[in-house]
Write a structure and sequence with these properties.
three-stranded antiparallel sheet, two-stranded parallel sheet
Amino acid sequence: MRASEYIHYLTREDVKLGSNVKKHEYNLANNIGKEDLLWQPDFQEAKESQYGSRNIRYRYGIKREMIELFKSAHKRIIPWNTIRYIF
């Protein structure tokens, strides 16, 4: 099969717009790159998960704007690809 014949099988799974405090601390302790891009307290709010872990997520208005920007770029760059969900 040629690459163009696979296009209809491709689906974008997700874009996660949040993080976990323990994961953040792990990333910092282990010098995981780009943590500064993931951890943005000025744009995020605290959230406790249903299991009790401390998480952060982007504030509603900011998250909505980021999703719309992503969807617009996605449509412009790979219009044949489908986004299944974004959270």
